[in-house]
């Protein structure tokens, strides 16, 4: 896997008050906050905020068979993805473990994919190698940069005027073209009012400035990450490890379920594991929200073990301070760990948020069929 993002520093770091994200983190090169990270989180929930995510790696795929080809090598049902529609998608290995997570939008004859900066070059290499004789042409699409627009007032007239459109797309994952190039698409996370912008990279500073002048508050990646964590949306490589399967990370479901793995599509690499877990088994771990003891000296790091009575029961992911909940984290925890178990993550006591535990008590259809065959 490539270790270096394709972009080292966003030009928006030059904005007054911009504090860069800590070195060595996935968001290195982006503004972490602008002096008031909690106020920025609040603005994203109650007003309107704009977040620079321009280090995300972008791939462009053209060619008349781009969707049918991508359908065969990924986990989402995208063969008939309509023009102006989007979806989340995964690339799995032969054992069903997650290798790549990406968001794709098909618009005006091109599929745009954006993914983590550290994983983008490998994803592009994989896609290029898998073309064979298909009429699909993946290429580096990093002439586009990603911004996120958050908040219930994102559709106010001044913001729309800054974008040059009459209305933001309202339906899940819907996208429309921007008059200056690029697109805006509806997203179901990290808040109930969220849109991603793909804008020409040379226009990044101008678009950001126009949105701020129209009333959007500049918000850093700290705000975006805090809201993402509370929304229980994992980030590959941070909240997942090399063993993670889609069921563990809540990626099951088609676009209507805001998932990245469609359970009713043709064969693809890793499908056997997905089908087996869905029909017969349970995932060994599940993604939960942890509340951390804010009085502890120091904070745990992503990748640290989560322990119970000195025994490792999970893996820590994103750690962040939320403006209302305090220090929180995502973690992959063994499914058989009871909600009330006293946990430790690094120097902090930790507790599972009971509302974050998925309900997996239902017996799968495949398991019921097996029991019937056994006469039970």
Describe what this molecule looks like in 3D.
By secondary structure, this protein is α+β, with helices and mostly antiparallel strands. It folds into 2 domains: 1-282, 2-Layer Sandwich (Gyrase A, domain 2); 283-359, Elongation Factor Tu (Ef-tu), domain 3, CATH 2.40.30.110. The chain contains 8 helices and 19 strands. The strands form 4 sheets. Strands 10-11-12-9-3-13 form a 6-stranded mixed β-sheet, with helices on both faces. It has a 6-stranded antiparallel β-barrel with strand order 14-17-16-15-18-19. A 5-stranded antiparallel β-sheet has the order 5-6-7-4-8, covered by helices on one side. Strand 10 and strand 11 (183-187) form a beta hairpin. Helix 4 (157-163) runs antiparallel to helix 5 (204-213). The chain is globular. It starts with 18 loop residues before the first strand and ends with a helix. The model is unreliable at 1-5 and 363-374 (pLDDT under 50).
In short:
With 376 residues, the protein is α+β, with helices and mostly antiparallel strands.
**CATH topology term of the largest domain:** Gyrase A, domain 2
Level-1 CATH class name of the largest domain: Alpha Beta
**Structure class:** alpha+beta
Strand content: 25-35%
The CATH architecture of the largest domain is 2-Layer Sandwich
Report strand order across the widest sheet: 10-11-12-9-3-13
Topology as H/E string?
EEHEEHEEEHEEHEEEHEHHEEEEEEH
What is the total domain count? 2
In terms of per-residue confidence, which ranges show pLDDT below 50 for 5 or more consecutive residues?
1-5, 363-374
Fraction in helix: 10-25%
Shape designation: globular
Using only C-alpha atoms, the radius of gyration works out to 21 Å
The number of strands is 19
The average pLDDT value, as a whole number, equals 93
Region (Disordered): 1-25
Domain GCVT N-terminal: 40-249
Organism: Rhodococcus ruber BKS 20-38
InterPro entries: GCVT_N, TrmE/GcvT-like, YgfZ/GCV_T_CS, YgfZ/GcvT
């Amino acid at each position: 896997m490539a270790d270096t993002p394709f972009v080292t520093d966003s030009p928006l770091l030059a904005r007054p008050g911009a504090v860069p994200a800590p070195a060595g983190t996935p968001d290195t090169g982006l503004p972490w906050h602008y002096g008031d990270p909690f106020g920025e989180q609040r603005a994203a929930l109650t007003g309107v905020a704009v977040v620079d995510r321009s280090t995300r790696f972008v791939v462009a795929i053209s060619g008349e068979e781009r969707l049918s080809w991508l359908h065969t090598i990924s986990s989402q049902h995208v063969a008939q993805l309509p023009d102006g529609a989007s979806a989340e998608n995964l690339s799995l290995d032969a054992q069903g473990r997650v290798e790549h997570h990406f968001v794709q939008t098909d618009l005006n004859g091109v599929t745009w994919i954006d993914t983590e900066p550290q994983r983008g070059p490998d994803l592009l290499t994989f896609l290029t190698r898998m073309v064979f004789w298909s009429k699909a042409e993946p290429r580096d699409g990093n002439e586009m940069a990603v911004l996120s627009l958050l908040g219930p007032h994102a559709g106010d007239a001044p913001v729309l005027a800054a974008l040059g459109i009459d209305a933001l797309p309202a339906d899940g994952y819907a996208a429309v073209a921007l008059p200056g190039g690029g697109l805006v698409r509806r997203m179901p996370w990290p808040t109930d009012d969220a849109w991603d912008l793909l804008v020409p990279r040379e226009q990044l500073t101008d678009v950001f400035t126009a949105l701020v002048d129209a009333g959007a508050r500049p918000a850093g990646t700290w705000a975006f990450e805090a809201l993402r964590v509370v929304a229980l949306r994992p980030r590959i490589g941070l909240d997942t490890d090399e063993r993670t399967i889609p069921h563990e990370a809540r990626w099951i479901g088609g676009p209507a379920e805001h998932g990245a793995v469609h359970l009713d599509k043709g064969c693809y690499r890793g499908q056997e594991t997905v089908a087996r877990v869905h029909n017969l088994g349970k995932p060994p771990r599940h993604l939960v929200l942890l509340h951390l003891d804010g009085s502890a000296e120091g904070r745990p790091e992503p990748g640290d073990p989560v322990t119970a009575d000195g025994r490792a029961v999970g893996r820590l992911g994103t750690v962040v301070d939320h403006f209302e909940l305090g220090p929180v984290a995502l973690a992959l925890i063994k499914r058989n760990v009871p909600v009330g178990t006293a946990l430790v993550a690094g120097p902090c006591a930790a507790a599972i948020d009971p509302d974050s535990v998925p309900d997996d008590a239902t017996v799968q259809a495949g398991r019921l069929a097996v029991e019937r065959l056994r006469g039970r």
